[in-house]
Every structure is written in structure tokens, then in C-alpha cells.
């Protein structure tokens, strides 16, 4: 019986190793392709081992290093501030909804759910943000529209509070004389770290990868985020290559369009991969808690 269990563990570990390799292989291929000569990629295709090593794609992207560093700074500030504000608003909405004694609880729940079904659309939203709130070409244009609050996140956090925060703990805190804010800050939030980390990472990904707000509301290149700047570089590079090719110029062959696409992805995804490594333990804990609670 022990031998059968041992054999199953070996088989399960082998399966997990295969799955891990399949997950890591695209990232390795992406990284090696970004350090491969453009001509080698065109002739030989993608490879895990670059035949002609080259950093020209990164040199091309970082030629205007000042703009790139500024874009990284803006993206970091927007991501950190936006994630914090989103978690704050989401928590302050979800926690009262999780309490059955909240007056008007059904109305606030319906109001939240209603926003998931109906919206004004892009044009009315653009008119509202630009003509009423005047956020165009400001940092608020990268923070507020479409990203500051999500009804789905509120519902997910409310469900977590209902399932994993015992009423007895909150009642005990009230008997001890704790206020509602003290209960939320000192009792509920420490027990809700898994859901906070999960929603925080999802929101952070949304802010970091967002380029539509920059496209709609930002015309000042000094306020470009990383994604907006990389998108403009890609667009300008494609236009330059088409123009050079139409004119029969040999300069078109020297524009590293394929390797630059790989480098663009590396520059965009690398910070998120670093952050995920530190938040992974909270995801594991959240899955374990969800499994125990059923």
C-alpha cells in the first residue's frame, strides 16, 4: 500500500514538472527572442537558444531612456495609488454589505449589481470625464475611469467576508468596546489578507496594463505610462518600416520589428512577475481557506 502511494506521488510530481515546464517555456522563448538578432529570427525562427545574440532591440527601445524612465515612474505611481484607492473603496463598500444589520442593505446591493448590467457607453463617459470633471491630460485620467472600482471585486470581497469572518469575532470586538472602524481595521482586515492580495494583484494588473485611458484622455507625452509609450513606439516603428519599405530603402531591414515586439513584452510583464512572486503565498492561503470553508 505504501509502495502504491509512493508511486502515485512520483507520477504526480512528474506531471507537475511537465506542467511547470509548459508554463515557463513561453516566457523563456520570449526572453531569448528579445535578445536575438532580427535577421536570425526571420530566417531561423524562434529558438530557446539565440543563434545570434543581440541587444539591439533594447537599445532601440531605450534610446530615449528619459522618456522610458518617466513612463515607468508614472506607471508605478498610478499602479500603487490606484490599487490602494481601489482596495480602500472596495473594502468600505463590501464590508457594510456583508453585515446583515446594515439599513438599506438590499438597495445598496441592487445599486451595485445594476452597474454590472448597464453602462452609459464610451462616448457619454468620455464627455462626462472631459467636459464635466476635466481630467483630460491629468494624472487622474489614468486613475479614475473604468479602474477605480469594480462591482465584481466588491461582490467577491463581500462573499469572502460572509464566508470567512465569523460573526462571533465581530460581536466579541463590539463587547470589548471597539468601534466599527476599529473592528474593520484591527479584526477584519488582518483576517482578509488573502482576498486583499488577490484583488490587489488583479487591480494592479489592470492599472499596469491599461493603455486605453492614456489613448482616450492623454495627449501630453510627459504623462504617458509604460503601456502607452510602448504602444506608440510600436506604432511608430511599424509606420517607419512601411514607409522605408515602400521607398525601397534598405533601412527597413535594420528596424528590429520582431525582436522589438518581444522586448516590449518583456519590459511590460517583468515588473508584474516580480510582484507576483511576493504575493503568491497569499493566493495559496486563500485557496486553502476557501477549501476548508467549502
Itemize the secondary structure elements and their pairings.
Layout: H1 2-34, H2 38-44, H3 56-61, H4 65-98, H5 105-117, H6 122-132, H7 140-143, H8 151-164, H9 167-175, H10 180-191, H11 193-209, H12 212-217, H13 226-246, H14 257-293
Helix pairs in contact: 1-14, 4-8, 4-11, 4-13, 9-10, 11-14, 13-14
Task: Kindly describe this structure.
By secondary structure, the protein is mainly α. The protein has one domain: Orthogonal Bundle (MetI-like fold), CATH 1.10.3720. It is 76% helix and 0% strand. The radius of gyration is 25 Å and the shape is flat.
Give a quick rundown of the structure.
This protein is mainly α and 294 residues long.
Helix content: over 70%
- End-to-end distance: 30 Å
- Give the count of helical stretches: 14
* Average of the residue pLDDT scores: 81
Describe the main β-sheet briefly.
none
Task: List the main descriptive attributes of the protein structure presented here.
single chain; 294 residues; MetI-like fold; 14 helices; 76% helix
